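The data are quoted verbatim for reference:
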Amino acid sequence: MKQILPLLLLVILAACTSGSSERPAGWDGVWKATWETDPASFEGIDGITDFTMTGQFTFDNDELNIKAFGFEGCVFSQDTLDHSLSWKVSNDSLVTKNDEETPGMVFLIKEKTDDRVRLQLMEDIFLTLQKK
């Protein structure tokens, strides 16, 4: 009996934690990405002419590759960015991680359908993913 109680506790703990963190079905593949922010947040900053940016998210099992197509005058970046990291969905968030010691970004999932995901980063950055 003394051996069964610790084993039972371990099984219950594993069951409670495994359901909140996953890689949901239907996310794998290539998604068109569009970042948007409110121009009012950047009033008076010279050189910024556009408050949207396009790119691509590619979910492939454990890996997420993000490409962001920056350009001159873009509030997000002037350069094209290409970065691969790991990912999971935990409760109502898409959580990215660079490596075991380096956290990535946490996006709040605002809405999700089979071919569209709307995410929020911080208060004023929104990201829409559209399945290709």
